[in-house]
Amino acid sequence: MQNFEMERIAVLERRQRLFLAVNVVAILLLVLVVGEFARKVHAQEKQDAKTLVLSELAIVDGRGVVRARLGGNLPDANKKIPRGSRIAGLLLYDETGQERGGYVTFEPGGNVGLTLDNKGVMAAEFLAGPDAGSAIRLHSGDDAVELRVDEDGPSIHPVRRKNGAFHEPAVENPKSTALCKALLEEKARLSMGQLIDACRGRSSEAACQACLK
């Protein structure tokens, strides 16, 4: 009977030592896991500290005038005359607070553009379409010159006093151009005079008349 009791005690002692060893290993593993997790969290915090998430950032000069604005939904230059598009990117302002240009994306059209303004008037545009096509347009009062390449092909188009001076190369099939199709879609909304003016800014007089007659 005594030997049986001694054996039971020995078994219980072995089990206790095994349980203790298992607990020690589990604690060590837990410490390692927690340490690795803390290291990763710290690394993530350091990484996040390098990234500043904002909807808009305004840079002011010594007088408190906003000279640059970086944002995801930038305001119109003139509240009374909206752009007609949502823009995101960078806008630049002169010392009076007048918008003088920017590097922005336009939605919903999907264009991206670099624009330069006189005071209150667009002076130069460099635009790229969402899938293809690009254009450079320079303005001065009622005069302008446009260099463009798009689905209608390459063209150079100067405008003098709001009328096309010439258009090269000549438009072979005005009705089939993307410009003509876009103008015809606006026929219910715009007057014929507005459509002709819009066309003259992009194409020859003959092509405009052929498209809109």
Description:
With 213 residues, this protein is of the alpha+beta class. Among the domains are: 1-51; 54-131, no CATH class. Helices cover 34% and strands 32% of the residues. The chain has a 10-stranded antiparallel sheet, with no helix packed on it. A hairpin with a 5-residue loop joins strand 3 and strand 4. The longest helix has 47 residues, at 2-48. The protein is elongated. The model has no long low-confidence stretch (mean pLDDT 83).
Helix content: 25-40%
> Major beta sheet, specifics?
10 strands, antiparallel
Mean pLDDT: 83
> What's the SSE pattern?
HEEEEEEEEEEHHH
Give me the count of strands: 10
Distance from N terminus to C terminus (CA atoms, Å) equals 120 Å
CA-based shape: elongated
Counting H and I runs of at least 4 residues, what is the number of helices? 4
Strand content: 25-35%
The radius of gyration computed from the alpha-carbon positions, rounded to a whole number of angstroms, is 35 Å
Query: What strand order characterises the main sheet?
Result: 1-2-3-4-5-6-7-8-9-10
Report low-confidence residues grouped into runs of 5 or more. none
Helical/strand content category? alpha+beta
